[in-house]
Amino acid sequence: MAELPPYFNIDPDQALAELGQAGSTAAFEEIASACGRGRDDLAARGMNEAGAKQLRLFSTWEITKYLIPVAAAHFRRVLKSNPDLPQGKSETEGGAKWFTHEEVLRLRSHFSDEGSKSKEYRPYRPKGQPAKIVAVANFKGGVGKTSTAAHLAMSAALDGYRVLVVDLDSQGSMTSIFGGKVEDEWQTVFPLIARHYAEAAQAENHIRISRGEPPIAIDDTLAEALKISAPDLIQKTHWSNIDLIGAQLNLYWAEFQIPVWRMAARGWKLWDALTDRFEADGILDDYDIIFVDTPPALGYLTINGLAAANILLVPLGASFLEFDSTGRFFDMLSSTFRSIEDSENMAARALGRDSMGFEWDAVRAVITRYDGAQQAEMAALMQAYLGPTLSPHRQDFTALIGQAGESVNGIYEADYRDFNRETYARGRQTFDETYAAFKRLLIGAWRRDEKGLG
Ligand SMILES: Nc1ncnc2c1ncn2[C@@H]1O[C@H](COP(=O)(O)OP(=O)(O)OP(=O)(O)O)[C@@H](O)[C@H]1O
Ligand SMILES: [Mg+2]
């Protein structure tokens, strides 16, 4: 007799016996605490004695293949004749030499100073131009926002750029990837937004007081925020040229607080908070690229991140549901930013001021987790409808992501010796190409500014 499907003949008494206790609020607490312990256990496995994350080492093979454009033999000769340069360590007598990431950066600057001028030892960064801010956003969850942002940040760091990563998602995934420690909302972007509001309220109070109106209250939270600037929130990561402003659960509070502030001070341009604070605090000179990871929602934090961005990347998978939902995301973006522009411009007209409009250097949808065998048709259709808005590069699905080990996040942190070489090379290539497609936008945008064509 053919076997019955698994949902037939379930015995009610046995089901009851298996059911266990009822769920409750207290049970949630227990589950959360169990997850927390497991997480700490896993996270600790990739840490050094001081409890910090540690980046793996880089071999001569990897450095000369991927990072510094010199032949391996020449690389070895240069090290030999410059004993002051990092010499690397080998695990076995005469074995391959391995270098820390700091050492790779030192070697890069040596080659850049001494090496052939025709090669690109340092990536393009026009003098005097501010850092570019890149937001990765889509209100659909799980489309690859964090993975894309994290890999781009690591690629850019390997390429020699100075990178700041800003986590606007209270899930804090990006923060975990970069080993950030965030106690509460005071170590997130929250105080920058609070300070921006407090300064707007103070400016408005000058007018109110001169008109004999009651001023907007500056409470303790705001008074505290007025003392905080972006460098106070920036933490180092295990990547020597990637810094982080982290996030954790409490950051979600901003979604409730911001509308309350907006009601109190109608003139507060909340969408300018990050842009203005980064500029005022010198962040745009301290870094080359700032990557902003956003939550799967179009809330106030996301709006702030998007308004601050020069380049907007919208990851999506090549499936009907993700295409459909991404279309609606663009619809929401359009109505959200349109309504801000309309109300600002109404006020501007009344005061005889210039009108405003949001502008981005580039907006690109990016196909992520692409499976060429199954999704070619869907991707071609999306390409046909989205045209140049869809990046021609498709980021392949790769088993290397999320499976490289407890504390290792993605391809650039993985040791290639843990994988089949071919799997590694293919996985790495798709993310190198994701970065190359992004870097084209970055360089094009900087060039446009440099030539004054913006
Ligand atoms: N190119 C890829 N190949 C294989 N798996 C991938 C790839 N990109 C992302 N993933 C996996 O897809 C899942 C979702 O990715 P990710 O967390 O980056 O999405 P997200 O958009 O940031 O999610 P959220 O909306 O929750 O913030 C993760 O398990 C990640 O490891
Ligand atoms: Mg995410």
What does it look like?
The structure is a single chain. With 454 residues, the chain is an alpha/beta fold. It folds into two domains: 58-114; 132-450, P-loop containing nucleotide triphosphate hydrolases (Rossmann fold, 3-Layer(aba) Sandwich), CATH 3.40.50. It has 17 helices and eleven strands. The chain has helices spanning 12-19, 25-44, 60-67, 72-81, 101-114, 145-158, 173-177, 190-210, 220-225, 230-233, 254-264, 273-280, 283-286, 300-308, 320-350, 372-386, 421-450, and strands at residues 58-59, 89-90, 97-99, 132-136, 163-167, 235-236, 242-245, 289-293, 311-317, 362-370, 390-396. Strands 6-7-5-8-4-9-10-11 form an eight-stranded mixed sheet, sandwiched between helices. It has a three-stranded antiparallel sheet with strand order 1-3-2. Helix 8 (190-210) packs parallel to helix 11 (254-264). The longest helix is centred in the C-terminal third of the chain and has 31 residues, at 320-350. The N and C termini lie far apart (74 Å). The model has no long low-confidence stretch (mean pLDDT 92). Magnesium ion (MG) binds at residues 145-146, 169, 173.
